[in-house]
Write a structure and sequence with these properties.
By secondary structure, the protein is an alpha+beta fold. It has three domains: about 5-235, no CATH class; about 305-445, no CATH class; about 465-620, no CATH class. The chain contains 14 helices and 28 strands. Strands 1, 2, 3, 4, 5, 6, 7, 8, 9, 10, 13 and 14 form a twelve-stranded mixed beta sheet that branches. Strands 20, 21, 22, 24, 25 and 27 form a six-stranded antiparallel beta sheet that branches. Helix 2 (about 30-45) crosses helix 8. The longest helix has 21 residues, at about 425-445. The chain starts with a strand and ends with a strand.
């Protein structure tokens, strides 16, 4: 179980200083824990095996009584001049983050950077632990040049990590464990060192190598790491003396507790990795677990939350080929696809697992942008829905032909597409994608340019404000004080849902009370789609009846729209549902048997650019 730290001297021809490697990550706008989740998950997904789900976990641990084992194995640390003070960092209250994946290939390939990978191996081990700035070997992978691994070092208060991996190649060198640290460049006498350090077995040629096979297993057990006793392949990356960040605002800010950090990590998983939780057409996906001191913080399914359900639905449409194509006249001719789904605005979920790392405030009016790997790049904001009761979530996914062009627009943290500095096809594709998405959102929300070339926004916002789902009155017959319909100006007042008095035989009027609306129709989301829902009371009667509902668009003066604009949507009654929910009848009519009064809900399609009203009527049933 012997191992020691080795410090890298500058080569005569030059070397990379540790400070420069850490700075390559830049200053991310995202919380460092979110960056960790994003970067680690990208690495894990790029290494997935052909079959089965990738298991990805983050465990927040306090060393506690186990600190003695850590100090015995990892001390003495690198020289203090390098600013890697492990002696002071490894205390009982120190926190370590253990980032794990399983059903991945592990960090395989050669142990040393100057060796050629054999057969179909990829040099993942040296790319992660030894080299800097090497391009990705994985087609349509989430990463690009590997700078994101700097977040592991940055989260450590002493810039130190341990890596334990079991590779798919197997053999004695298949199990390998090694430490690494990034400090500051420093001098020992007249000799300058880079500030890079490795912990492991130092070979006779004075080059550090990982600890292998059974010895690696012994070290992992002594440190309480997950290990690979079950024989599965994967990687554990341990961030030593982790900085968990702060919570709260300004003067009220304080350090996160391990439990708060675990909740924030789970929330980051949901908002950034939800597409990987949904099996693709080959059944591939990722499963996530977040732990804190032996207990788990659940990571629920993304479609169980209103805030994410619209994004999930949009992704399903994109995967099914139902999205709008981002088409170009020059290659790549198909650069991506877009879909959008509506949801209820609501008050927002207050559960911390949703709120802690939510990337925007208020109801969603955003488009999740992603490449082929389906890892969220960012949430591009669009205009709020003109109906304040609605929200929306969209997805734009790059095509395989354009994936590399979008990748070239990403910063090291992969959290934006930046056209500045690009040229040629890459610049055209990235700029055009933003314009395409904005146009698609405007069309979906009814913000298209009006006929006549005014260039103003469409009537979506005005009609939403006038929509007849907040009634001024409930009555019988025509309301002549209502606002205009599509394209018509308001004449004052708000059109309310109307109860019609017409009937096929007139029997309902002879028998007394008629079916009636009993409350305010409301806008509801049902199976991911918005509906106008009107409550209806059907009175008691000794005769069976057929009760029908109609919904119509109102024009200026309160009349019914008979000739809608070309291509305009018409509202339709879709179903009746009993208040108890145990009876659902499709269509505009239901058969109500003789008996006591009954309460129902009528569902009609929502037309955002129209003022509508309901009517109900009844006739005697032929079966009576």
């Amino acid at each position: 179980m012997s191992g020691r730290w080795w410090s890298q001297p500058f080569a005569p021809e030059g070397s990379a200083a540790a400070e420069g490697i850490v700075k390559q990550l830049g200053r991310p706008a995202l919380d460092p824990l979110t960056v960790l989740v994003r970067e680690a998950a990208q690495n894990s997904w790029d290494a997935h095996l052909p079959e089965g789900a990738v298991e990805f976990g983050v465990d927040v641990r306090v060393l506690g009584e186990n600190v003695d084992a850590w100090r015995q194995l990892l001390l003495p640390g690198p020289p203090s001049d390098s600013n890697v003070d492990l002696d002071n960092a490894l205390r009982p209250d120190a926190v370590v983050l253990v980032v794990s994946d399983r059903n991945t290939g592990g960090l395989g390939g050669p142990l040393r950077a100057g060796e050629r990978a054999r057969d179909e191996e990829t040099p993942d081990f040296v790319q992660f632990l030894r080299n800097v700035g090497e391009p990705s070997d994985h087609q349509f992978g989430g990463g690009t040049y590997g700078f994101g691994k700097g977040i592991f070092y940055r989260l450590s208060q002493v810039g130190a990590i341990l890596v334990d991996t079991n590779t798919a190649a197997g053999g004695p060198a298949g199990r390998r464990l090694m430490g690494a640290a990034l400090g500051h460049s420093w001098f020992l006498g007249d000799r300058r060192f880079t500030g890079r350090h490795w912990w492991g077995h130092v070979a006779p040629d004075d080059v550090p190598d990982p600890i292998l096979a059974g010895q690696a297993d012994s070290v992992a057990k002594a440190l309480g790491l997950p290990g690979f006793a079950d024989g599965r392949t994967g990687t554990d990356i341990v961030v030593l003396a982790a900085d968990l960040g702060s919570t709260g605002w300004e003067s009220y800010a304080r350090e996160r507790t391990p439990a708060e950090a675990a909740t924030f990590i789970a929330s980051s998983v949901l908002w950034n990795l939800w597409p990987k939780m949904i099996p693709d057409e080959r059944g591939r996906c990722m499963r996530f677990v977040v732990g804190v001191n032996g207990s788990r913080v659940p990571v629920p399914e993304p479609d169980s939350f209103d805030e994410l359900a619209t994004f999930v639905e949009a992704l399903h449409d994109v995967r099914a080929g139902k999205g709008a194509s981002y088409s170009r006249t020059v290659p790549p001719r198909n650069a991506g696809s877009f879909a959008l789904a509506l949801g209820a605005a609501g008050g927002g979920d207050t559960r911390l697992v949703i709120a802690a790392a939510k990337p925007f405030e208020g109801p969603s009016h955003h488009v999740a942008r992603m490449r082929v790997a389906e890892l969220v790049v960012d949430y591009l904001p669009g205009p709020p829905h003109p109906d304040t009761r609605l929200s929306y979530g969209g997805v734009f996914k790059a095509s395989e032909d354009a994936d590399a062009l979008f990748a070239s627009a990403e910063p090291p943290t992969h959290d934006d597409w930046i056209a500045k500095g690009l040229s040629g096809s890459a610049r055209g594709v990235v700029l055009g994608a933003r314009t395409f998405v904005q146009k698609q959102v405007d069309e979906k929300l009814g913000f298209g340019t009006q006929a006549g070339g005014s260039g103003d926004h469409g009537l979506g916002e005005l009609s939403a404000l006038l929509a007849g789902i907040v009634p001024a009155r409930i009555g019988v017959g025509r309301d002549t004080d209502g606002p205009g319909g599509r394209g018509g100006p308001s004449s004052g007042g708000v059109v309310g849902p109307m109860v019609g008095g017409s009937s096929g035989s007139g029997s309902s009027s002879r028998r007394g009370r008629k079916p009636r609306l009993t409350g305010t129709p409301s806008l509801q989301i049902h199976h991911g789609h918005p509906y106008l829902v009107a409550p209806v009371m059907v009175p008691a009667d000794v005769t069976a009846r057929i009760v029908s509902a109609d919904v119509e668009v109102v024009v200026e003066g309160g009349g019914r729209e008979n000739e809608p604009p070309l291509g305009a949507a018409l509202p339709q009654v879709m179903q009746w549902q009993s208040v108890t929910g145990n009876v659902v009848v499709s269509g505009r009519s239901i058969h109500v048997p003789a008996g006591e009064e009954s309460e129902w809900y009528v569902y009609a399609t929502h037309v955002p650019d129209a003022v509508v009203r309901f009517r109900v009527s009844q006739v005697a049933s032929n079966a009576s």
